[in-house]
Amino acid sequence: MTPVLTNLMRPMPFLADVEDSFWFPKQASSFASEVDWVYDFILYICVAFFVPMMAFMLWTMIKYTKKKGEKAESQVTHNTPLELAWSIGPSVLLVWMFVQGSISYLDMRTPPEGSYDVGVTAFKWGWTMDYGAGTFHPELHIVKDEPTKLSMRSTDVIHSLYIPAFRAKKDIVPGRYNYMWFKPTVASEKVSDEELAKAKKQSEGSDGWDYDKYQFTPDGYTFFDLYCAEYCGTNHSQMQTVVVVHETQEELQAWIKANSSRPEDQTPAEWGQLLYNRRGCSGCHSNDGSKLVGPSFKELYGSTHALAAGSDITVTDNYIRESIIDPKAKVVAGYQPVMPSYKGQLSDDDIASIIAYLQSLSSNVAEPAAAAAE
Amino acid sequence: MSTSTISRDPGYPTDRENYLTNSSGILSWMFTLDHKRIGLMYLIGVMTAFAVGGLLALGIRLHLLDPEGWMFTGAEANNIYNQVFTLHGAIMVFLFIIPSVPAALGNFLVPVMLGAKDVAFPRLNLSSFYLWCFGAIFFVSALFSSGLDTGWTFYTPYSTTTDTSVILATLGAFILGFSSIFTGLNFIVTINTMRPPGMTWFKMPLFLWATYATSIIQVLATPVLGITLLLLIAERTMHVGIFDPEFNGDPVTYQHFFWFYSHPAVYIMILPAFGIISELISVHSHKHIFGYRFIAYSSIAIALLGFLVWGHHMFTSGMSSLTTIIFSALTFTVSVPSAIKVFNWLATMYKGSISLTTPMCYAISFIFLFTIGGLTGLFLGTLATDLHLHDTYFVVAHFHYVMVGGTLIAFLGGVFHWWPKMVGKMYNESHGRIASLLVFLGFNGTFLPQFVLGSRGMPRRYATYDPEFAFLHQMSTYGALLLGCGLLYAFIVLMLSLAKGRRAPANPWGGATLEWACTSPPPYYNFERPPVVGDPYDFHNIEWDAKEEKYISTEPERKLVPEETPGQVPAHH
């Protein structure tokens, strides 16, 4: 059900998305209509109080503004029944807000049995969704009309998962699991192949995919925004991803399968670059030599670094592998041991692909091979 | 009139009596124990802090002019933005809003309204001012030196892992907390013990009730902030494992500790504003305040209930459902006493004789803005809608309507109301009113669009944002520029009055509280002897003297008993 006021304000051309209401983004989950309805009702109540009060104030202001020195018409000091009435009367409305708010809240809090479960890992500054069987992806893909439960954890500081179109939000607190659920009601649309091909061509050569520019994912789906809502440091405002709602379970399974491992037609280095962007490496490791939270990947492979522990190490295949699985074992001097472990989250082929990608960024590739030959 | 009346007007102070001129030299200010001078120094201090915080706010708004960020550029743009909003929040909260009304105006007014010569502990009063200065310098230098970027809330584990100077900044806040406690303690003792004969609790001006309620919160809640900050320092240095999950701590525990202080602190900020508005509305309507007891009791109710609602800052943090629902219920109870006050102010204006002076313009904008701030709180207290609105611009707009539309506007109204009393000069009324209109329009321009931004899903504390939010962000920025101009205008009006303002009469507005019974500015001793105390809102005997543009209080000629002067000079004379 769409609230009346929301409908009235629908044609507001200056707000980018014309299909949205004045107050809210599109309603795309079963919670949305519930929340919007409660919101609109509270809004009516507030307007019903605010407008007469301000009209009264304006009227007294005009009517009773007098020349200095004129006496007030009345010097009444109080009227207890009247004051009790306006103290206690509106409380009924407050009780309604509390009760209605709590009922809806309990619905939103308790996931139904047998919900589709997606694991969510939040980190500075990105998301990894776990689709089981070793498939991880930063985008959240779910199925229309299927209750979906997110089991969420954070590897560093507090984050908060917020999907405005679903009217759903929950903090993700390190050291514990937090859960949320929702039932999406609107499926993403698929853009035409030509449009997708055009966008793909345009975005070639640039880092990653510009979701805001194209308004669809690299797979060609329109999406709903997913934000981090709890301040988490430097790139808090870039800690965004998207939600894609598939029409059927089969479509989702097909998408998962396509993203579970390296496709036949991709080289390890290409797949490694994809993982670099997709799995959050790029948040801390640049590929252009600039220093972020961790060492840059440019010219890293084959170079020699001093470790925080004191000794030196040359970056080889095995060192990279160890740093992915047990990042705190050998930390390069000048950096904090803050990287989470990817043990069990990347397959052997994935790790080999990342190594291949690092090799492609380095001019030292030949040297270790030569050293091995000696 | 049938019977002859005598009028009472204290006239003007001589230079020797005037508290501003009775001694001179920088040392006479630095070591002064006069509450009025300390109040004036606080006023300069908090206005300076406000100017710094306000410029930072303009920086935030200018940055958000463009989705990709306009003001700060380069690789560090996000970090600079994060530091700027942290600084803005921390300076505004700890250095401006909390001390603004109680420490600056309260210091000046509490003893004068009580007909007393000073506060109960003048030396404690001066030391609290120096603690404030010391804490402010410490705090600001810590913030600027390493670029604190935790937000003013210092949430763990971000604050225990960032490499910026969290320890120094929290120590600064700790020191400022002591300054706040000292002021609160001083006012509690002063109001309890130094009321003049005849001033019962229910004959106190409502500003004193509000100050009293505020002081209770300051004394009871601020120590919790101190404990929290000490624990935070212990966590960072010794890893005691309370807040940091890496050492088996719980970050949500920190939020409980923090909001147990910081929610009552919200009422430290707004209660004195309620007190000011009660005075302003009544005096400028020349009508007895309506429902004195309800207003007085509601201040105390807010002070007590304010301690029970801290959990509403954490509805999405993963507290148990039962806890969440209980906090929601308690949150609604605290809205009742605030609503009572607004209704009573409106009823006070009804059938009054309103003078649309500058302070009254601020009081009327306060009612408008604070009502919006209060009503939008209902959306956030309701659990279902809060889950969507929490940590979005809706919250930002809501608390700015309360803190700026409420406290700042009331503070400005109070400054304009008591300015003639403090400095002995009248400012230009029409320019004062134009400035208040600009502030009103600029404020709404800044924060009304933010409600819509928030309900449409724009998260707060974002340095960059999705392009669909650009239009509303730009509106907000233009509003902020207008607001800045309005505030600057108001400041210039006040400064010009110092140079060329008309000499202020003792009672320029027609107030009946005691501060209007002494000269403007008051003599350094305030009152020679405890003044006669009546109903602080009884305007029957206050008459307008059009010739001299001032109000005088009249009383029927009375026979004094004994009629003859005693033959002998009393022994103690």
UniProtKB/TrEMBL annotation, chain A:
Top-level class of the enzyme under EC nomenclature: translocase
The UniProt record lists the keyword Protein biosynthesis: no
Compartments, record wording: Cell membrane; Membrane
Topological category with respect to the lipid bilayer: Multi-pass membrane protein
Residue span(s) of domain Cytochrome c: 267-362
Cofactor: Cu cation
Domain Cytochrome oxidase subunit II transmembrane region profile, residue spans: 16-112
Cofactor annotation remark: Binds a copper A center.
Family matches, as InterPro entries: CcO_II, CcO_II-like_C, Cupredoxin, Cyt_c-like_dom, Cyt_c-like_dom_sf, Cyt_C_IC, Cyt_c_oxidase_su2_TM_dom, Cyt_c_oxidase_su2_TM_sf
Main subcellular localisation: membrane
Keywords from the UniProt entry: Copper, Electron transport, Heme, Iron, Membrane, Metal-binding, Respiratory chain, Translocase, Transmembrane, Transmembrane helix, Transport
Gene3D superfamilies hit by this protein: 1.10.287.90, Cupredoxins - blue copper proteins
Keyword field contains Signal: no
Residue ranges of the TM segments: 41-62, 82-99
Catalysed reaction equations from the record: 4 Fe(II)-[cytochrome c] + O2 + 8 H(+)(in) = 4 Fe(III)-[cytochrome c] + 2 H2O + 4 H(+)(out)
Protein name: Cytochrome c oxidase subunit 2
Automatic annotation (TrEMBL), chain B:
Highest taxon of the lineage: Bacteria
Residue ranges occupied by any Cytochrome oxidase subunit I profile domain in the UniProt entry: 29-534
Subcellular localization: Membrane
Transmembrane segment boundaries: 40-64, 84-109, 129-146, 166-194, 206-234, 254-277, 289-310, 322-347, 359-381, 393-416, 437-458, 478-499
Topology within the bilayer: Multi-pass membrane protein
Keywords linked to the UniProt accession: Electron transport, Heme, Iron, Membrane, Metal-binding, Respiratory chain, Transmembrane, Transmembrane helix, Transport
Principal place of residence: membrane
Start-end of Basic and acidic residues biased regions: 553-562
Region (Disordered): 553-573
Similarity annotation: Belongs to the heme-copper respiratory oxidase family.
Family matches, as PANTHER family: CYTOCHROME C OXIDASE SUBUNIT 1
Protein name, per record: Cbb3-type cytochrome c oxidase subunit I
